[in-house]
Amino acid sequence: MVLKCEMRKSTLFIILLFALKLYQVQATDWNQYRGPNGSGLAKDCNPPVNISNENLIWKTLLIPGFSSPSLSEKYIFLTGLSEDRLVTIAVNKADGKIIWEKRAPKVEIEKVHNAGHPACSSPLVVHDYVYSYFGSYGLICYKLDGTEVWKEPIPTPKTLYGMSTSPISYGGNIIMVLDNDANLPGSRLSQSKIVAFNKDNGKTVWEIPRPLHRSGWSTPMIWQNNQGTDLVVLGNGRVSGYDMKSGSRKWYVPGFSRETISIPVAQKNTLYVSSSRLGGGADIQPDPQPFWEAVIQFDENADGKIERKEMTDNFTFPIRPELPIGHPGFGIPLPKDKSKRELRLDGMFKGVDQNRDNFWTKEEFIGNMRSGRGKPLLIAIKPGGQGDVSKTHLKWELNRSIPEIPSPLLFEDLIYMVRNGGILTAVEASSGKIIYRERIHAPGHYSASPIGAKGHIYASSNRGVVTILKANRKFKIVDQYDLQSPIHATPSIDKNSLYIRSENALWAFRNQN
């Protein structure tokens, strides 16, 4: 009897070990945007920490697209746009050869910002299937060999810049956040919603209306904590947690800007959520000097002032002064129609020229700088709240060095954030205290989120410079490599490789050890 009992215990122990091992393997799968649950962290992987031509095992030319690589065991999946057709692409990990390309049905391509792309959403891999979402069309499911299983057209949400949210999976469902500027204030009909699609046939399983929300660009995540499981969605103005069983909203925290992009991260029963001020402001009290230096470049007669007649060509009110003049993200977008543009510039000029002397002085310009709605935020949230939890379940709040596009990386006890200008900030996860804020000698704009593995952080600039740093409390750059090709998509990691999508290619760097 004792022997049988011991045998049962041994069998149970082996089953538990197997289940734990299976969970660990699944937990390190980079099968969606930014890897496991959007965390950006590949715990058990060992990619190269020095990248060069020596460990570049292949480079494959690709059609344009901003989606990040999602991985199965053998393949890499991306999306792109070719001759006005949206395309899903499968690439062989071993040699970089394109295995298949499948075009979505022909549709009108949605309008996107000049700095964006119609193929921004990253594919999702679940077991033997890959799911692609295109804002212009909807969801398409393929087998890993490229066989189409189903497609589900989804009306294109109205947005400011184009869709970029990516699908995630939970249970038997594919979950999409479809926030929409077509929401009507006060209307009982909500265009913004969260939808769960059956992963086997694409049919709608449930919908959650989001009547308070307009367009957003964040991907949702699943927060498993000691109070339950929450679907976390960062949207314009607030972050919300939804019950995964009933679909009802449990809690929310207001105070975020109109334009939210990053994906939240979680660890040890704490959720971390970040968003910059509208227009990319990283600090609650931004330094006005760079904005004035950006606008005074239009001072043709060098008198230290701006006249209305000097507001020509690429002139606009700067909102991201670190970008070059003419870059689509440099300033407030203006109409292409000349007459409408001139009217907008007239209003802009009068708004700053308070004393009506027909000049902008430095004092007037700085005195009239207006911040957008919301403030730069990184917050730590405790589980278990109901309703507005901003005064009951916040552990701490930080209002400095918050990136506009890149998501935070939670790596052990520190949160890493990289923002425009190439500034890396490390924050203590338990307290919100800034440990360091340093320049990584790779200036410019940052769209790709930092990712981490094996004690290292990988940060990629839009200019194409990849910086590898040690993940600890002392700032240390380990390596930098210039692809000499722009990077807009977050790279991906598997057990020994780093995959980087540049403007026109996919690069594979592999650890040979």
List the keywords.
single chain, 513 residues, Lipocalin, Recoverin, domain 1, 5-stranded mixed sheet, 4-stranded antiparallel sheet, 4 helices, disordered N terminus
Describe it.
The chain has 513 residues and is mainly β. Among the domains are: 44-64 and 408-513, Lipocalin (Beta Barrel), CATH 2.40.128.630; 289-367, Recoverin, domain 1 (Orthogonal Bundle), CATH 1.10.238.10. Helix content is 11%, strand content 34%. It contains four helices and 33 strands. The strands form eight sheets. A five-stranded mixed β-sheet has the order 14-15-16-17-21, with no helix packed on it. Residues 1-27 have low confidence and may be disordered.
What secondary-structure arrangement, pairings included, does this model have?
Blueprint: H1 2-27, E1 56-61, E2 70-71, E3 75-82, E4 85-92, E5 98-103, E6 124-126, E7 129-134, E8 138-143, E9 148-153, E10 168-170, E11 173-178, E12 193-198, E13 204-209, E14 221-225, E15 228-235, E16 238-243, E17 249-254, E18 265-267, E19 270-275, H2 289-295, H3 338-352, H4 362-367, E20 377-381, E21 387-388, E22 394-398, E23 409-411, E24 414-419, E25 423-428, E26 434-439, E27 451-453, E28 456-460, E29 465-470, E30 477-482, E31 492-493, E32 497-501, E33 505-510
Parallel strand pairs: 17-21
Antiparallel strand pairs: 1-33, 2-3, 3-4, 4-5, 6-7, 7-8, 8-9, 10-11, 11-12, 12-13, 14-15, 15-16, 16-17, 18-19, 19-20, 20-22, 23-24, 24-25, 25-26, 27-28, 28-29, 29-30, 31-32, 32-33
